[in-house]
């Protein structure tokens, strides 16, 4: 299949690709004809997705800094030193107010959501520059634009992700490197990855109210935006922060249908 | 300035006297001019100082003010990691403002622009030169001073700031007010 986006044969790395938004991105970018490597913590899910889509799974927990660095190196190897698209998606979530957030959980969120994303982006900068360009896509959150105070630590890390993306956008632009931050609103089934020992902090959409669009977002929605940002169709987009939330963030107290 | 009290909640519990608590996060240029305040690095290093007043001016006297940066509002590539940390700090301030508000605790951030003599504490202990002559000037055609920042902190801490909560106050001479604000002073021949 020829990609209408012209992505055939290009090389992508998706972090946190074994579930949720990351998984949808792996599938979508493969369907666009890209060569895709992805990281994840579950070997079982990773191997299955790799076999299903013809992509490369790299077993990696981004809490482990060495493993995280090594995974990026492995992806560059698999691409023969080339990397056109980085989808920095791996993230974990902790439900709690700022006062109730244990420091261990705060640090773990910082490590995975912000530091690992920064390190991966920084490592990809040079090969992207040497090959004449590339697209970094950072999966932030609407909570990074306006805090969701019950997701305090998560909001803090995602605000940092937006700043990282803007700065790589500014710094990479002269080299043809683009960087954009995607800010999904409520996506079902929600973020399931949490700090160790806090598995009960995964998101539960049962308590959510619908966005103005009348439905929750899906990973598929986000993957469509990722494909567009990966492609030359968005060649002049960089340093941008894009909400994808069904209108939730468009006004402070939005009306909800039905 | 009285002795540091560990934790603002301790400060709140300390008595009925009206107290103004300052929480200072991050190494800020303003602090370079205040020997009483130790150099800070990282959000976990928190110094809270409290000041007694003769009488209670408000029912709700606790105010936390973080020293953030204009780089946390609009980042700069030359100080990228710093910009990221200050953006995260601004979000922390707003998160805490929502959470602590019902307890009568206001949380705000002052976001200074270029402030002389520049930050003294750098990663690895490198000292700033203190030479501000090469700095681009904001529309007000001068660099900021520690007093400019202190005045903003005093405002947040005072009864005048009683309804400010979750505010990010730029004290930058207008540098972040426009895309090319740094060219204005030069073009108009200011300072």
CATH architecture heading of chain B:
3-Layer(aba) Sandwich
Net shape of chain B: globular
Q: Largest interface, counted with CB-CB under 8 A?
A: A-B, 24 and 19 residues
Profile the largest sheet of chain B: 3 strands, parallel
H and E order of chain B: HEEEHEHEH
Query: DSSP helix count of chain A?
Result: 6
Description:
The complex is a heterodimer of chains A (258) and B (191). By secondary structure, chain A is of the alpha/beta class. Chain A has helices at 20-31, 43-53, 65-78, 103-130, 152-172, 219-230; strands at residues 11-14, 35-40, 56-59, 85-88, 134-139, 177-184, 241-244. In chain A, strand 5, helix 5 (152-172) and strand 6 (177-184) form a beta-alpha-beta unit. The radius of gyration of chain A is 17 Å and the shape is globular. The mean pLDDT of chain A is 94. Chain B is an alpha/beta fold. Chain B has a single domain, classed as Rossmann fold. Chain B has four helices and five strands. Chain B has helices spanning 8-13, 80-100, 146-157, 184-187, and strands spanning 19-24, 47-52, 63-67, 106-112, 168-171. Chain B has a three-stranded parallel sheet with strand order 3-4-5, sandwiched between helices. Chain B has a two-stranded antiparallel sheet with strand order 1-2. In chain B, strand 3 (63-67), helix 2 (80-100) and strand 4 form a beta-alpha-beta unit.
Secondary-structure blueprint of this entry?
The complex is a heterodimer of chains A (258) and B (191).
Chain A: E1 11-14, H1 20-31, E2 35-40, H2 43-53, E3 56-59, H3 65-78, E4 85-88, H4 103-130, E5 134-139, H5 152-172, E6 177-184, H6 219-230, E7 241-244
Parallel strand pairs in A: 1-2, 1-4, 2-3, 4-5, 5-6, 6-7
Helix pairs in contact in A: 1-6, 3-4, 4-5
Chain B: H1 8-13, E1 19-24, E2 47-52, E3 63-67, H2 80-100, E4 106-112, H3 146-157, E5 168-171, H4 184-187
Parallel strand pairs in B: 3-4, 4-5
Antiparallel strand pairs in B: 1-2
